[in-house]
Amino acid sequence: MKAPDFAYARPASLDAALALLAEHGEDAVPLAGGQSLVTALNMRLSAPGLLVDLNAIPELAGVSEDEGVVRIGAMTRHRDVGTAALVRERLPLLAAALPHIAHPAIRNRGTIGGSVALADPATEWPACCLAAGATIVVRGPGTERRIAADAFFLGLYTTALEPGEIVTAIEFPVPGDGAVWGFEELSRRHGDYALVGLAATGRRSAVGLSDLRLAFFGVADRPVLARAAAAAIEAGDLTGAQAALADELDPPDDPATRAATRLHLARVVLGRVAGRMRDGTVKEET
Ligand code: FAD
């Protein structure tokens, strides 16, 4: 299928992009990597009158560090996020997630800001944001909002973004001493959307794991922090943690993958990730 007719603008500054979005209201949408939006246009799931292309706004791309925070510009491509030396050193969780995002062509075009703004519940970056305690930086006309990831993902493809706002960056606190992380994803084929995934951060000491943040994806209408499961693991009770997932997750139930299957897989993934975090080992990603 072909996309319906639309107008196209390629502003060279964030202010110009915001002005276009304000002028055209809900008839205009930002275009980032186009890896989800163009598909939606071609399938006629979406028919905006104007695409505001963010690709010519240099300030929106790049990775930098300042005062204990790694800032990743919204237009940074998936590949550039996961391969940046700063990310590999400071935020290895993100580097581990990268190979699970679709395929090379999509990773070369798709952006972290587009992924976060889209909020597909089966995707990696939103869960990583939640696990890492990231802040989503959002600009509107004359306003800037900084929204904790915990408060940003509200439901299926639904976020705290207001019409006319643009995600400009995602800020990740640099993990401190004793920090550990874990990542595991199960999908039918490598690169497919996750059946179940888990991005996790925490701290490890001689007495065990603490400050655990377990962000599951593919098992609810948004990425989910499993708080009771985290508390059980901190208490050394993996079986209790796996049992707690029945109340904390709300997996979709479809004929291809039943909810009970996803819940079972979530428990398997939790056992693997918790074990590696406890032992201080890292899974080799391919
Ligand atoms: P676009 O497609 O350009 O935009 C997506 C939406 O976000 C649009 O509504 C747009 O208006 C809005 N938007 C974009 N940027 C901003 C911004 N800065 N501020 C506000 N709103 C904005 N993703 C995964 O994470 N994991 C996968 O396994 C995966 N598999 C895929 C498989 C296929 C076959 C395809 C086609 C896509 C897959 N994707 C997957 C999606 C891909 O990662 C997209 O790149 C991503 O979801 C959207 O990023 P984008 O930059 O392409 O955004």
From TrEMBL:
Domain FAD-binding PCMH-type: from-to ranges: 1-177
Stored InterPro entries: CO_DH_flav_C, CO_DH_flav_C_dom_sf, Diverse_Substr_Oxidored, FAD-bd_PCMH, FAD-bd_PCMH-like_sf, FAD-bd_PCMH_sub1, FAD-bd_PCMH_sub2, Mopterin_DH_FAD-bd
Keywords from the UniProt entry: FAD, Flavoprotein, Oxidoreductase
Top-level taxon of origin: Bacteria
Record's keyword annotation contains Isomerase: no
Name the record gives this protein: Xanthine dehydrogenase family protein subunit M
